[in-house]
From TrEMBL:
One of its GO terms (molecular function) is DNA binding. The keyword Transcription applies. The lineage of its organism: Bacteria, Bacillati, Actinomycetota, Actinomycetes, Micromonosporales. Residues 263-330 form the HTH luxR-type domain. Keywords: DNA-binding, Transcription, Transcription regulation. GO terms for biological process: regulation of DNA-templated transcription. This is Regulatory LuxR family protein.
Length: 340
């Protein structure tokens, strides 16, 4: 496979862009510019797939008018992406060798051709582990198509390009900041879960989907994180409490990720029983003694007894001090996760 001159410099520049501490839009713009020597484009776009709306979300479109940006987010454009086969992995496609005549594609007839563009290339962005994340398209006024060696370079660079704009990148960076995370998933706007590359899913530790939905609701607006205990299995088949760290996902395109849930071993529990950990969960919520008793279907006297044992074991001077410590250390089971 022959590669065009300057391939090494382009690769090095993409690696530099991948390391930039900026958002995906800035990385996408820098990436398109870095690829100019091979794409030789007058206009380009890079979009990320929103798998729940099944739409492409443009993150950069230098040289294109706002009308095209709006079209790229439409169901009509996604239908054409599927028709051409760009919704899955594959080799970049030039205009002249499109499997569908461009005269039948609204994107070309209504947008690219009227803008004076004569040739170009579209490529699916697929990560090294096989995840489709979006598309890159570049078009030029010159009718001369890219050479085969240019396409070979783009094929070689595809996993690296996809890595630069992969929506999971920021989430994996955040996950790496959580000490001893052993498993994790991402919750989406539709309540689905996506696995974090390189980590087993929460099902491996017996955490049920219903628990995950509740976990997402515990991240109240304005709260940057939440930490608590959930019932699970460790090892598989043996009941255990696991510590959850829940983090809201940054508001980056394509926008369907809502929260990240990471599992780890529990902290020191001071000999607290499961019932006492649930009482602490209600205490963290600000419940009164009477409310705790009602929720757990126990007498007020029993509830007070639990609280006295909790304060003694934790060395806390008051119920408020116990609640604050439990919240900071993630040392409680939310009421909805462990029923009496």
């Amino acid at each position: 496979m022959g590669l065009p001159p300057g391939s090494g410099r382009i690769t090095a520049e993409i690696l530099r862009i991948a390391a930039l501490p900026v958002g995906v839009r800035q990385r996408a713009e820098a990436l398109i510019e870095a690829l100019r020597p091979v794409l030789r484009h007058d206009a380009a776009w890079l979009s990320l797939l929103d798998p729940e709306r099944w739409l492409q979300e443009p993150v950069a479109a230098p040289g294109h008018r706002p009308q095209l940006r709006r079209y790229l987010t439409s169901p009509a454009f996604m239908a054409q992406v599927e028709r051409v086969g760009m919704h899955r992995g594959g080799r970049p496609i030039r205009v002249f060798d499109s499997p569908v005549p461009v005269s039948e594609l609204a994107a070309w007839v209504d947008y690219f051709e009227p803008a004076g563009l004569a040739e170009g290339v579209s490529m699916p962005l697929v990560t090294a582990d096989g995840r489709y994340v979006g598309m890159l398209g570049a078009h030029a006024e010159s009718p001369v198509p890219l050479a085969d060696e240019d396409l070979d370079l783009l094929v070689m660079l595809t996993p690296l390009i996809a890595h630069v704009v992969d929506p999971m990148r920021t989430l994996l960076t955040l996950a790496g900041m959580v000490h001893e995370a052993r498993a994790g998933v991402v919750l989406t706007r539709a309540g689905r879960t996506e696995e974090l590359p390189g980590l087993p899913g929460t099902r491996a530790f017996g955490v049920e989907p219903a628990a995950l939905r509740l976990i997402g609701s515990l991240l109240t607006p304005g709260r940057s994180w939440a930490r608590f205990l959930v019932p699970g299995e460790d090892p598989p088949g043996r009941p255990a409490l696991l510590q959850v760290t829940a983090l809201p996902c940054p508001p980056e395109p394509p926008g369907h990720h809502r929260a990240m849930v990471l599992l780890g071993s529990p902290p020191e529990t001071y000999g607290l029983t499961r019932r006492e950990l649930q009482v602490l969960g209600l205490l963290v919520e600000g419940r009164s003694n009477a409310s705790i008793a009602s929720e757990l279907r126990i007498t007020s006297r029993t509830a007070v007894g639990h609280l006295e044992h909790i304060m003694l074991k934790m060395g806390a001077e008051s119920r408020t001090a116990a609640a604050v410590r439990a919240d900071r250390q993630g040392l409680y089971v939310p009421a909805g996760l462990l029923r009496p």
